[in-house]
Design goal:
This is Carbon monoxide dehydrogenase subunit G. With 130 residues, this protein is α+β, with helices and mostly antiparallel strands. It has a single domain, classed as Alpha-D-Glucose-1,6-Bisphosphate, Chain A, domain 4, CATH 3.30.530. 25% of the residues lie in helices and 42% in strands.
Length: 130
């Protein structure tokens, strides 16, 4: 299952945005208002929980400065990655788009497609809060 957020323009250079997203603590600012839990559990990992959904542990998997950051689920129960693709526009602005790639059975995919789609859309639209 692949989902994409809308592309969002942020008033920061690609390098500055990459640096902010490289620090997992900053993901708390991107979370939706209905977040039930957010806990940093290391330099490269955090746990978050949304109301009505199980807690998910995300770990930094790959960084390609300044264009790409890959976060992956630390559990094999829900195997997925969240990829931030950053495109430089000018010295003080860049575009960012989030791609969600998950390997789920059809029933699970049907159940989580809506909430996950809304979630990555919220993460992208909150990029300006960084």
């Amino acid at each position: 299952m692949n989902l994409e957020s809308p592309k969002v323009t942020v008033q920061k250079s690609a390098q500055k945005l990459f640096d902010l997203l490289s620090d997992v603590k900053n993901f708390e600012k991107l979370m939706p208002e209905n977040i039930a839990k957010f806990e940093v559990i290391g330099d490269d990992a955090f746990i978050f929980g949304l109301k009505g959904m199980p807690e998910i542990k995300l770990k930094m998997k790959e960084k390609v400065a300044p264009t790409k950051i890959v976060l992956g689920a630390a559990s094999d129960k829900l195997p997925f990655t969240l990829i931030a693709n950053i495109t430089d526009i000018s010295e003080n602005s860049s575009d960012v788009k989030l791609d969600f790639e998950g390997d789920f059975n059809p029933m699970m995919a049907m159940m989580i497609k809506g909430p996950i789609g809304k979630f990555i859309e919220t993460l992208a639209s909150n990029m300006n809060k960084l």
